[in-house]
User: Fold these one by one.
Assistant:
Number 1:
Amino acid sequence: MKVRDIMTKDLTAVEKDISVRELIFILNNAEMPNVPVVDEDGKLIGFISEKDLIRAALPGYFEMLHSTSFIPDMNQLSRKLTSISNEPIERFIQKNVMSVTEDDDDLQAADLIIRKGVKNVPVVDANGRLVGRVRRIDLLRHLL
Amino acid sequence: MIVTVTLNPAVDKMYWVEALKICDTTQEEFLTRAIRSSTSAGGKGVNVSVLLSRLGMDNVAMGFVGGHTGHVVVRDLRDEGVTTNFVWTHGETRANVTLLQIGREHSPNLINEAGPNILPEEVDRLMRRYKRILGRATWIVLGGSLPPGVDPGIYGEMAQMAKDAGAKVILSAGGEALSRALEACPYIVKPDTREHLTLEGKGLTTVDAIIEAGRHVVACGAEIVIISHDVTGDIAITKDDVWEIEAKVSTSKFKNLVGADDVFLGGILFKLAQDAPLDESLRFGLAAGLASAESDEKICRDLAVIEEGMKSITVTRL
């Protein structure tokens, strides 16, 4: 099967200049754990997830600790998140984004999802413009 | 690429009942049990999108959605194979209820909600997304009522942007939203006459009045104006011609008129997008609308049934 046969045809995406607060609203309401970032022509330029926002709200030394037990309370996280809530999302975006095209084999999308552990993979056309995404659940429901 | 815009989509909830009981005293309570019911995504552009997808034509549906009912709309469209591109809002997408009495399906009772209040920043978000997709669009369908909070000039602005980007615009709306969009000279105008049988202040009660009103809109810059004058008949006015489209079918065969008018428009677009001539597109459109009205489903899915239905439709130049 090709990616076009299993993908979710949805163009939900954000621009890099929207605020963190706006992004949280979109992720929450669209019930998406992450969302592609596109430019003015709809070309995929990055990706941003809940995880990226949590990372942005954590203290800088957190990556070295490997445990949340060093965070004294949730207020610290809340204060940091509030302080960046009106900032553009641009500096939190993952710019090295993996994607597939509609004509790729479904195995290619499966490889990215399984091997890289991502929840979904953006699908782009020949011009790099977003046309949908392959979710983990898309793979599972088509395998059954 | 075909893009439909439905700013005020809905969940269409339909109930078929033996008899509709209305409680008219405070002492009495009536329970009406539905024999059958259905739930589907609705709204003018949404219905056009579903028809096109069922006929195998890729398209994108966009607009505002929110809350639980918003998810119902998006999920239903995805299941139909439509590409979704909606902006999420704070409010809840509306639900429209249709009550159909068995044997009198040609006279449905409709209860339509106004829709959620849309915030200015949500309109901005939609316009950015709309601008982004225009570079890929060949046809834009702007359809239906506007939710509270949206400026009536929005269809005019969107139509002008589409024209500037080289896309043809089909506008199906009523009231001020329609009037203000005429300045942008849409390619096709289909006035929504469900509530008021008027167009630009002119009554639409006779064929002559319909033609006069249509010519006025064509003079404003529209290429084609299509106005319904009967459930089974429409008039199309262009700069050079006036066409009457009529079907020889009994309205007693109708099972469900919800969305039939949108399917009519979607059928016309289906053909025009394949470069078919206008008269053939009009025949196909009405056949699709009637096939939907005669089927249990809101929107027909059988191309062969539509093509067979075209035999009972005449298109006459007046």
Number 2:
Amino acid sequence: MTVGVMLLLGTALVAAVAPHTLRTLARRALDPVVVLAGWALAAVGVLGTGAAGLLFVTVPALASRTPLDELVHGPWWQAVSGAPSHVAYRVVGWAALGALLAGLLRLAWVTVRDGRARRVRVRTKLDVVRLLGTPDPAPADGAPLLWLSSPSTHAFSLGGRPGLVVLTDGLRHRLPEEGLAAVVAHERAHVRGRHHLLVAVAQGLARALPFVPLFAAAPAAVREQVELAADIDAVRACGPEAVRAALLTMTGLPVTGAGIPADALAMARDAVDLRVRYLAAAAEPPTAASRLTGCGVLGAASASVPVLTASGLLIVLSAVTTAAALLG
Amino acid sequence: MRGLGGIRGLGELEAAVMDVLWQGAGELRVREVLAALAPQRTLAYTTVMTVLDNLHRKGWVTRELDGRAYLYRPVASREVVTARALRDLLDESRDVDAVLLHFARTVSEHESAVLRDALGPEAGHP
């Protein structure tokens, strides 16, 4: 049971701290794909360790052959085996089993329910835009394009295979050819990278287990990082200037300073800086090797930290007990 | 998996019929829609009738009985319907899990608002 409780403590610590760590890494303009891998594997680590912890609390015998158990041998075991309140242990054991089953059921139920609702909504949206829009006749190198007759400047994509990129006519009028190509490259990167699915999974976790800080923070972070990842792909295809110009146009900000005071224009540059900063970093886009290494290192760290934290807690606990036994 | 191809095919037909209605001035009968589609597609009269009936059920067209045939008309112009649909599509607060990903969304609403204020009204909306 001690092992289980420590695993749960480790999970809770990581679930609380990981969002801050991952956000700090993201602010340092780390490759967004690496940051996304970090979020994904932290989620897997927290889910896996949490489930294992609950299971070990329910059936302590399961933990008795694991290396974790080795960490608490010695006086601690004597203290535990001499402990009187067995009823309380059993109650906790049943509660843990209940929590584990409830968590798993809730996750499954929310996944199925939301997944079904999402498919219906996406199909409805597809029906609507297909009725309103005009398919782009150019041969598609990626998700097909659809034009909506509207003077506004909007671009968005719907996930799936082949997916769909929807653009408004306003873009054709306001953006130069390279800017338009950048927008298309960005949206197609979303479809190709299955970003819609990533966001949906993050939203599902947040909805199913909203009391876990890591999951509550995931949807916003994942949304932000997939935008940055798509920006980098667009930069690869069209160059940072085209993406920057497109961004400024589509946020409704002036690309040129006509009639705008110089300092205001500077401010406009600074705020869009959020993404433009990454565009600068993307001038040297991450190589496949650096991306793989980054994903591996950060991913392994995120996934193993709950177990390592639990191990640390166990060692401390064991040491404290040993010290107490020696003193007593 | 129910025939996705079938659904897409029907969607295309609906789009083609709406195209005809939006381009044609005023109200059209099934026969007239069929004639307008005829150069590219050879369709049965009943197919076009079914498609128009579907579009009516979904609220895309209104119809009025004229003698023994219905006269069909789009509920609004393509531009008006598009503007309405865009508002729905982009309103993510109401529909968070239908996952659209937008270009230019990451600059937060707050930041955009601060900027627009700083730049004055002429920096305005698209």
